[in-house]
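Quick start: read one record
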Amino acid sequence: MKPHIKIYMNHFGYGEQEFIPCECCGNKAVDIHHIVARGRGGDPTGKKDIIENLQAVCRACHDKYGDSPNWFEFLVKAHAAKLMVKFAELLEKLEKLKTL
């Protein structure tokens, strides 16, 4: 299991075979998406593998919203609700990740 997937699963207490809902639509999630992309070369330092940047999504939502800057705030709002944090706080933290 990839490190970012372990981080997400451990944070929310999910087991490997457990149903994980998509944070956008509620269907079964199949990917743990980086809201702020790791980049083409990945993220060898792991700086973007933090729970604030990791979001469970189904394939359809990943394809529709995943790497489009137009949907960034939508994804942040959905993830803020899952984390139960204020949107503005999460947005600020993720904006800082963009510079890494």
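Residues 29 and 58 are 4 Å apart (CA to CA).
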